């Protein structure tokens, strides 16, 4: 069976995330790219791609967070976080046993895989990338 659409917008603010620099310097940005929609089949797996480009070097403090907002819900939950060189799958919701980190920040990739898809996975996934400072 084909599962419904899994939209994967980057952020509510559009395709450019802003990351302020220290002091009164102008703002530098990170551009984050995802597929607009991803389709999956119940029981299979799907890769949620998240690539990014930054005008600055990739910091050791880079962080990547994935959020999920179920279709029809107003609430969003954090389902994955990458920080200090380590992936962390949040111990909340139904994704904790089905998620796999396949990204590599040094290759500007923050992608994840969700295994054993279910109809309840239908919703909006958001990839947030921060590259301090």
Task: Describe what you observe in this structure.
- This protein is mainly β.
- It has one domain: Immunoglobulin-like (Sandwich).
- 0% of the residues lie in helices and 41% in strands.
- The chain has no helices and 12 strands.
- The strands form 4 sheets. A 4-stranded antiparallel beta sheet has the order 9-8-7-12, with no helix packed on it. It has a 3-stranded antiparallel beta sheet with strand order 2-3-6, with no helix packed on it.
- Strand 8 and strand 9 form a beta hairpin.
- The radius of gyration is 15 Å and the shape is globular.
- The relative contact order is 0.29.
- One of its GO terms (cellular component) is plasma membrane.
- Its main location: membrane.
- It is a single-pass type I membrane protein.
- Pfam families: V-set (PF07686).
Q: Helix share of residues?
A: under 10%
Any idea of the CATH class?
Answer: Mainly Beta
Strand ordering within the main sheet: 9-8-7-12
Number of strands: 12
Which range does the strand content fall in? Answer: 35-45%
Q: Give the second-level CATH assignment, the architecture.
A: Sandwich
Helix/strand structural class: mainly beta
Shape summary: globular
CATH superfamily: Immunoglobulins
Low-confidence stretches: 1-26
Fill in the CATH topology. Answer: Immunoglobulin-like
List the total number of helices: 0
Order of helices and strands: EEEEEEEEEEEE
How many domains comprise the coordinates? 1
Distance between the termini: 45 Å
Mean pLDDT: 82
Integer-rounded radius of gyration? 15 Å
Biggest sheet: strands, sense, closure? 4 strands, antiparallel
């Amino acid at each position: 069976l084909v599962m419904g659409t899994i939209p994967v917008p980057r952020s509510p603010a559009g395709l450019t995330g802003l990351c302020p620099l220290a002091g009164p310097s102008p703002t530098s940005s990170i551009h984050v790219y995802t597929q607009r929609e991803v389709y999956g089949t119940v029981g299979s797996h799907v890769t949620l791609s998240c690539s990014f480009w930054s005008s600055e070097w990739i910091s050791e403090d880079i962080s990547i967070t994935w959020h999920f907002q179920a279709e029809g819900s107003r609430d969003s939950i954090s389902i994955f976080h990458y920080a200090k060189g380590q992936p962390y799958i949040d111990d909340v919701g139904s994704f904790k046993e089905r998620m796999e980190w396949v990204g590599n920040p040094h290759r500007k990739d923050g992608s994840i895989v969700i295994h054993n898809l279910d109809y309840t996975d239908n919703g909006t996934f958001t990839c947030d990338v921060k590259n301090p400072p």
